Amino acid sequence: MRKRQQQHFPMSDRFSQRKVHLAFSKKNLAVAIKSALEATGALSRISSDSRVALKPNLTYPYYKQGVTTSPLFIRELVKLLRDYTPHIAIVESDGGYGAWSADEAFAGHDLFSLGKEFGIEVVNLCKEEREYISFKSGWRNYQLPLPTRLLHETDIFITLPVPKIHCMTGLTLSYKNQWGCIPDSMRLRRHYIFDDAIVAINKSLKPFVLADGSYFLDRNGPMHGTPVQMDFVIGATDAGSFDRYTSELMGFSWKRVSHLKRAVELGDMPADLDTITYNVSPVEVSQHKFQLKRTVRNGIALTGFKSRFITWLGYESWFGRVVLHAILYAVVGKPVKPQSQN
Questions:
Q1: What is the distance between the alpha carbons of residues 73 and 66, in angstroms, rounded to a whole number?
Q2: Which of left, alpha, beta for 69 (phi over 0: left; psi -120 to 50: alpha)?
Q3: What is the pTM of this model?
Q4: Under 8 Å between Cβ of 97 and 188
Q5: What digits encode the pLDDT tens for the residues 151-189?
Q6: Which of 71, 219, 250, 315 has a CA between 20 and 30 Å from the CA of residue 286?
Q7: Cis peptide before 147, with omega less than 30 degrees from 0?
């Protein structure tokens, strides 16, 4: 399977016809998923030989409303795609800072069972071969590891984000979901170049977007916040179109999100909503104005989010791991161990 020549589709076609399709999923999730994939052209690109990779948001080791892509959403998508190709992989990397392994998250979302049922792969990207992409941030050149599987052995990459407020970046939509493609649990070391890095990753992987919008997350995130039931499936030809449209739907300006501002500067995300073709105006379906409410813990973490030195001091040095964390836990308490909602 993995040695066939990669299919190539001209990205100019997708970007010249940027599309977002919103479908209502409350009555029939399967129909909503299919309509979004058809409208954005993703489904028409899949043949019996196509290798498809699905990247859910598994920011928590168990399903949590508004936090992770739901097992039901993934099941309905796989069930549909299995009629087109058997070459499907669900992919994710280990949780940041070694919080949990991708395998734990797969098990917590019942994805190993799903893999056996449909005869598809469930892949921990941290166990895959990798190679480096290069990009520029400021005046310097940088490199990031990405799985060879995604760069050269995948024909259609579909990212499955959950739209959320994020305590560090403001929003986490489709761009940021690919941060979990970095096969390194210590990817927080690279937060100081996050804005340029996340755009470079998305330019390399070229994802279609299919968002699980059953619930969005308000007030905080990515793991803790207030789930808001929306009952949407939102598909897009590209991450930039999705993030521009969905930020409008959420009533949270993209100009408040530094990596989205950078995506606009680099020409990967359109600043003007009118350059995107969509079936439903985001203003018309806007049900809730989303707002960021940071906690004390968030405020402390934010001081080091984009500082290479503070990140090293807080997470990698002995002083940070032992002394600073002890002080932090004394002030705001220790993190609560993730628990299943079932």
A1: 13
A2: beta
A3: 0.90
A4: yes
A5: 999 999 999 999 999 998 999 999 999 999 999 877 778
A6: 71
A7: no
